[in-house]
Structure formats: structure tokens, C-alpha cells
Specification:
binds 5'-O-[(L-methionyl)-sulphamoyl]adenosine; 510 residues; 48% helix; 16 strands
Length: 510
Amino acid sequence: MTYYITTPIYYVNAEPHIGHAYSTVVADALAWFHRLQGTETRFQTGTDEHGEKILDAARDAGLPVKEFVDRISAQFRRNWDAMGITYDSYVRTTSPEHGKVVQEILAQVYASGDIYFGEYGGFYCYGCEAFYLERDLVEGRCPDHKVEPTFIKEENYFFRMSKYQDWLIDYIETHPDWIRPERYKNEVLAFLREPLEDLCISRPRERMGWGIPLPFDDRFVTYVWFDALINYLSGLGYPDAPEFARFWPGAQHLIAKDILKPHGIYWPTMLKGMGLEPFQHLNVHGYWQMAQGKMSKSLGNVVDPGSLVGRYGLDQVRYFFLREMVFGLDAQFSEAALTTRINADLANDLGNLFARSLGMAFKYRQGIVPAPGTSEPMDQEIVAAAGHAAAEFLQHFPALEFGRALAPLWEFIGRLNRYIVASAPWELAKRPEAASRLDTVLYHLLEGLRQIAALLRPVMPGSALKMSQQLGLGPALWDRPLPQVLQWGRLRPGSSLNKGPALFPRIEND
Ligand code: MSP
């Protein structure tokens, strides 16, 4: 089975912020993990460039819309490149390739009878670019934008979404972790308890022309969500490219809770209408909240990922993202919390362990990995603890339970730090008859660190590589699938270690 991970394609009406960076980093870490497992992996991100929101933003910026979307899309891309994000494809919905796929799909679904023409009157929120039913409004206002929607009556094309309601309910119930974590599955099932309406999939060109023309009626353009969701297929070269056949069966989408309805309801029914198999999982995370509540331009609390990474370090931010947020729940963002994680987990726990262990190997053994002698119970405990940490990591990481993957690894780090105290290598070094005991202790420390480096690559790719370089291995550490890399004892006695700078400098508080 292949692994195909996608992020949402981000709207180009505003610059990238840490919310976008979080989803992209999570997808990158998952892509790394699966590549290291030896699975054929593809990772896609991109930008969503049609619709009214974008048109308005271009107008506000005083730029022709094409020039505007080119500019912001490039900014997203530069941002991911600067963060070393290892995406394989970057879809832009204004590209001719994407437009062609959207039109082919529309023509096919239209021919099958699942798209019809009709008149509809409804409450329209311009912010959401969506119609609301009266029952979905909160005190007569859009639940998201808190503005009174406009009643619009117009002719449009509709996708027979209602036809697939029962199928969808059944699919969700028979595939209990398809939408995960569970709270979001329940949320989708709750939507589906009410009768599903058909989906309005066009906008009259005279009202809003920035979109892909319907292939069967060019007085209309495609509704932005019908267009955007198809990026997950167009980026694979659907329908003819071999990548589509290879990767679609391994598809996993990653989104936040704000776009659950389009991904949990529109998208699966669209796929059903096209005669395609559903994706493997819809993975839904929560929101980063600021002290003042939501991150927003008007509150002036939008955090730019580039400047955060510049000040704290890329791997430090990646680690914080994965360790601090329970996947699926909201989390509080603050630089104080980030600093605490860096100083406690990275500088103190891991950084010190690494520096002390290598320092002793240089001081007592000239930077050569010693051959371990007879193992004592305390050494055997280290081997068992490494195995336990690795098993937990390999189980929880692909299920997006990053905290449950990382916490046992940090318990192992803590155990190695205590092992140093308990075995007191500096005392052993004073006694020539304890030379073999010192070899054993140093070997267990270095091999334990090799295990840690191996597992941390998806989380902190640069730091894990630095660790591996100092351990004398470099990229060769990952020359086979992770479970084999993790066999205890692969660090070769007699090999040379390398000196290097501290992994994680402490952040001094002002
Ligand atoms: N263009 C649509 C998605 C189409 S996908 C076919 C869109 N774009 S968006 O720019 O608004 O991005 C929304 C996504 O950005 C969220 O689903 C999430 O991945 C990320 N986030 C935006 N703000 C966020 C937080 N405050 N916290 C965490 N993630 C956030 O919706």
C-alpha cells in the first residue's frame, strides 16, 4: 500500500500564518515517517485561488486578480521551501491542468444525471461563499462570520448530494476510524441526521466570474469548493496518469475542524458520484488559539511562521507543534510555552544527554565507539526501554497521536540521563579494572542515542541528521526501513564519533 498525504490547499486571500504552518508540518512529518518505513509516499499541498473572497482581496490590494494570486501563491510556496517542507506536488487551482480535470469531472457527473439545473432561494453568506438553511443560522446570522446573510434567489446547477446520504451514513458506520479522531466522525454523523440538501455547484458569471467555467453552460462558473476538493485528484494527474492509480488507494487528507463539512460530506459524495473509492482517512485537527482568542488580522495577533522559525529554529517549532497540541483538540499558542518546551525537553533533556554522552566518549575513549562487555540488569533495562519507546512511537505516530508517540521517547531520554547518574562513568574511569564496565555503559548510551536519532527524523529532520553525523553515521543511519534500523546494536564498535556544536541552544528569557 502507498501513502498519499494532503494538506488543505490554502486560500490566497491572506499570507501564511502558523495555523497553515501547523497542518503543513504535520503532513511533512507524516510523509517523512512513511518514507522511512519504506512505504512509497507522496505529499501534496497547494493553493485555492478562485471565488469571491480572493476577488475581493485582489481588489483591496489594488492588483489584477491573476497577478495577486500569483504573488500570494508564490509566497506560500517560498514559505514552505524555506521551512524545508518535502512536498512532491504543489497544486494551484488556477493552473490549466487543474481546470481541465475539474471540467472533465463536471462533464462526466452531468452526463450521469447527478447534476441538474434549478432555481434556489437561500440565505447566502459572502464570507463562507455558501447558502445556509434558516435552521443553521444563529440568531439570524452566519454562525462563522456573525453577519446577517443575504437572501439570494437565482438559477444554478446542483449536485444530487442527497442521493448519497444513506450510503455515506452507512460507510461512516462501517468504517469507524475513517474520520478521526472520533469526535469529528460524530460531528459528521450529527449533520447527517438532518436530511441532506443537494449542493449548489455553480455561480452565475455575471455575479461572480472568477472560477472555472462549467463545460456544459458557460454562463456559470464552478462553485469554489467543488473546484478546490478536486485538487486531490488533479494533483495526481487524474484520470490517466500512473500516479493516480498508484496513490489514490493510499489517500489520507489532513484538515482542521473548520473545513470538516466539505471534506466529510461534499467530498465523499462527489467521489461516489464519480464512481471512485473514498480516501483512506480524513484526519482532523483542532485550532491554535491565541491568548486573545482567535488569530485574526483585526486583532493584530497573526503569527508569521517565517519569523517564528527565524527566532527559535525550525526543528524547535516542529517539535513544539507536534508535542504541544493533542491532535484533534484546540491548543493555546504562546512563545512562553514554546520557550519552555525548547529549554526543558530539547536543551535540558535531550541536548544535555547527547552532549554528556559524546563528551564522555571523547574524554575516556578518544571518540571511538567501544565494544560493550558483559551486560548487567541495568543495561538490559536500557535495551528493553529502548524497545518499548520505539514500539510506542511506531504505533502512535501514524495514527497522528503525536504526544503518545513522543512522551515514551522522552521517558527513555530521562531513563538514559538517570543511567548516567547511576553508573557514574567518571568513577569507573578512575579504576582501570572497570574499563570493560565503562565500555558497556558508554556503548549503551551511544546506541540509545542512535535509536532516538532514528525515531526523531520525521519530527526534527535536521537535528536528527546532526545527531547521526556526530554518531559517525550520517544519512546512512536510515538506509533501511525503520524497524530494521531500530534493531539494538547496529552501532559498530570501533567506529569514530564526530565532534559538533550543541544541538539545541537554550533560549534566554528577557
Ligand atoms: N481553501 C480552503 C481549503 C480547501 S481544501 C480542498 C481553506 N483554506 S484556508 O486558507 O482557510 O485554510 C484552512 C486550513 O488552514 C485549516 O483547515 C487548517 O489546516 C489551517 N488553519 C488555519 N488556521 C488555523 C489555526 N488557527 N489552527 C490550526 N490550523 C489552522 O479553508
